[in-house]
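Priority: medium. Attachment 1 of 2:
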């Protein structure tokens, strides 16, 4: 299938390139889309070669990378250092990595060519995927992060692949390529109305931007129902769309960890495994959000401590239903303290009902709910 490539317009002088927003569907069950993404991207069928030229012009990512790799090839390390952003500490981190011998630059002498394969513009940032070829024919995939304000500069982050920002970037990349498997861009059930738009902006040490967000759009079913500690009332409120939720909450509250046989039966019932995997939990630490991996016993204790649960919304993706909820606990003075939003996964059965299944393998949709950038903006979009 022919890839759709954006047309990039270059203007005279030092003005930065102008991008258009591209939209693509998020692959869903049986070829149907479950949402869509808006982002400023360029994906090249044929990698775009960077010409190696020494210049003072850093007005575009391509020109900066041209100067950057030219200087690396020629071992002009002092010139390379000046291409890193000073305002966010990148220049100092680059110098420290060199001094500590964590960054070895000698290999660039043998570089024969650098090619751009993907480019994502996000606010003032550019995430650029590269393919580098050496003189002996070897090939290496790499990424560079740039920021372009009055001029373009390199960001030194030593490629922290666990960071929230790169999690969003990887979601953009994977959904873009997966969308090529859809038969049509028009097969979104019910059209494009009724979607919740989650606009995500990049973060930086001293660089913020409110332009060019990555927009992730899902068709959530908003619920807004609160479940307390009354098990009978829970069953009355919860329909067959969320089978097992009330039982899981009730049995978690009454589970005695000292009774190993009962605990093992409990895990097999809800995790399908006597020795289940950890569960991710969004945890508030002061003014910051942290993502923790809870062992199953710790997660059950987490549920035991809940005074109530607000069922916020649900999202169907193929045969999986994601239930978004916000727990609350009692504070020291009996005040209600709201905790960060979480998600539980349900298997959608043939009759359309859904059953709680904590053994379902985490996927890229699930991981979004445990990305600090996404969950913060999702709460804003859903009015939480």
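Attachment 2 of 2:
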């Amino acid at each position: 299938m022919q890839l759709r490539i954006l047309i990039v317009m270059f203007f005279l002088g030092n003005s930065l390139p102008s991008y258009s927003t591209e939209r693509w569907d998020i692959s869903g069950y049986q070829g149907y889309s479950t949402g869509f993404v808006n982002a400023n991207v360029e994906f090249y069928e044929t990698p775009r070669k960077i010409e190696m030229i020494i210049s003072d012009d850093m007005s575009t990512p391509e020109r900066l990378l041209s100067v950057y790799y030219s200087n690396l090839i020629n071992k002009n390390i002092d010139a390379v250092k000046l291409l890193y952003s000073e305002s966010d500490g990148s220049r100092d981190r680059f110098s420290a990595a060199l001094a500590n011998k964590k960054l070895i630059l000698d290999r660039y002498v043998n570089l024969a060519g650098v090619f751009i394969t993907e480019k994502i513009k996000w606010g003032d940032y550019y995430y650029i995927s590269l393919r580098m070829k050496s003189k002996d024919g070897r090939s290496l995939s790499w990424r560079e992060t740039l920021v372009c304000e009055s001029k373009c500069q390199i960001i030194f982050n030593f490629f922290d692949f666990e960071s929230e920002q790169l999690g969003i970037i990887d979601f953009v990349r994977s959904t873009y390529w997966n969308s090529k498997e859809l038969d049509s861009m028009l097969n979104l059930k019910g059209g494009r109305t009724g979607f919740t738009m989650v606009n995500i902006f990049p973060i930086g040490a001293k660089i913020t931007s409110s332009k060019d967000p990555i927009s992730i759009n899902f068709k959530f079913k908003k619920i807004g129902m609160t479940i307390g500690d009354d098990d009978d009332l829970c069953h009355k409120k919860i329909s067959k769309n969320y089978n097992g939720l009330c039982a899981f909450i009730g049995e978690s509250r009454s589970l005695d960890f000292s009774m190993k046989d009962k605990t093992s039966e409990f895990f097999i019932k809800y995790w399908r495994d006597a020795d289940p995997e950890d569960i991710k939990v969004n945890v508030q630490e002061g003014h910051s959000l942290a993502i923790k991996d809870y062992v199953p016993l710790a997660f059950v204790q987490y549920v035991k401590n809940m005074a109530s649960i607000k069922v916020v919304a649900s999202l169907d993706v193929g045969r999986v239903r994601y239930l978004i909820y916000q727990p609350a606990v009692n504070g020291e003075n009996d005040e209600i303290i709201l905790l960060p939003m979480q998600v539980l996964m349900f298997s959608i059965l043939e009759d359309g009902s859904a059953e709680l299944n904590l053994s379902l393998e985490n996927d890229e949709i699930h991981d979004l709910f445990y990305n600090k950038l996404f969950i913060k903006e999702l709460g804003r979009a859903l009015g939480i």
